[in-house]
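Collaboration report, partner site 2.

Our partner group contributed sequences for two proteins of shared interest, and the home lab folded both. The records are reproduced in the order in which they were received, starting with the first partner submission.
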Amino acid sequence: MIVNLLEKGNNIIDGFADKKALLVFLFYKAISDRYLAELENIEKEKPNLKDIKKYLIANVRTLNLYDVDNKKLLIWHNVKNSPNEFINALNKILELNKNTLAKLRKLMENTNFYSLFEGENKIILEKLINLFSKADFSKLDYNTLEDTYKWILQQFTSEKQVYTPREVSKLLAYLIEPQDEEVILDPACSFASTLREIYMYAKNKDKNANIVLVGQEQNEIASLLAELNFILSKMKNAKVFTGDFSVYPKFKEEIKKFYKDGKADKVVANLINLNPNKIKTINHYARKMGAIVIDNNSLSNEEKDKNIRENFVKNDIIDAVILLPQKTLNNCKIIVLNKEKKDKRKGKILFINASKFNSLSEKNIKKIAKIYKEFKEEKGISKIVDIKNIEKNKFNLDVSLYTPSKNKIFRKL
């Protein structure tokens, strides 16, 4: 639905402004719809509350869309019929949320967005406003939003984007088990789907859990979408930075608010197609543990990364290696790092061959997480290997070497 809407918007705006300007309309309409939905929730919770107090609560739960000083509700629905009121409301929202929406402001300045409000271009503007007014973002499920983010990245970025499938993000959350008051970092977060799954996991375990989520993403559009993702998912303690983390780890200053050394409690990352050396950087910023998605060939038997494998194995940092199902992420695995190994895990690595599963269903995710948590062997699925034996194999971390893949054990689970 939303992708079709954006495709139509693409045709309308083509030749008049940078197509990335569509993201401004997407954001404004989506957050306005979510704000109205939040007002409905507040009405059910506190039906006798005055409107102004409801607006103030909605401001806290979503975004500052009520201008207290001027007593104006700045939602899309109130300004859609007047281009002047529309742009004034949008500018005021940017002012009221200047830290949160810095990336959106930058996008507006860099895409000729404001030119749509000049002269004959106002006809294009009215068409776009009418188009987006037909959509209701208040009840969209996250799968639809995720598909929308992917479409946007495919259309508006020249760089090849690597996405972490939602089920893999969910597995990463189950593996690291985020706890109250922890700082979680994803330094290659794309549009922050994994950070969102970590947030949802923590809230499902404890609705009062307070975790801090920090991301960094090299692609500017993906970084903006991460910011939008945080807002629409009501993730208050979440922040994303733009840039290559291995060149300039901007996230450090944010994490230093909690830890002086700028290191997070736990780190997750998708490093598919990236230099294996970045794994060392990930490990550096993890205080307790990390879970990293990499190509299956990385840290296996290639000479180019032998030093990394050897260092990690000898220092007993690797807790588990999990080969993912082909239908989920073909020829990829998860490396779980643990700097706080308990005695029964010391000197050993757990290899889990999840390629034996047809898919990462909810049950399969929980099963893999259970095997990891209990650090146990299961015939045909997992094997605990002493690091001395791994050293004999030239520090090869290929899962199939230790848990041979002959037949699929589970057809459906």
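Second partner submission, folded after the first:
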Amino acid sequence: MPRGYDPARSFFMTDNRDLKTLAELANDEDAEVREYVAKNPSTPKEVLAKLANDERWLVRMYVAANPSTPKEVLAKLANDEEKSVRLGVAENPSTSTEVLVELAKYKITSMRRRVASNPSTPIAVLTRLAKDKDAKVRKAVASNPSTPKEVYIKLAKEKKIRRVRTGVFWLIFFAALLVWAIG
């Protein structure tokens, strides 16, 4: 074996969808290996639920960001003591609307911004966040494909806020490009 060869890490460079191996590696003593398992969208839901209780916050953060994580696990992680874990929940498109509604109420701008960019965020929340005092939050709303057209139009009229207008422009550009590509 080459010097520094690690079969666990090697697994992630090749076939990383072997569910049995993923379940075994979730118990690895090396936290970095558990992080890889937590990131993997092929990791079984029950393994992600177990990793949601990991002592290392990075493992929990990767579970929170994994689109395969069950909604009930995401709801639990939404109350994690570590801010980065909660931010991962806010970004995850699998997060329930109830949890997104609660996270949108945070005073932390980065939390509201991530909720605003999540395509699963309810329209009522996007409409409210479109009026947020922070331009980055409004730009995230403008970049969200779930934002209603009338909200985009209001955001596009914000002449003093270049970032928001730029976000609206790029969204319209990519939508037009997609329509053209599909034919």
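Feedback sent to the partner group on the second submission included the following. The domain at 8-94 is CATH 1.25.10.10 (Leucine-rich Repeat Variant). Residues 162-182 form the longest helix (21 residues).
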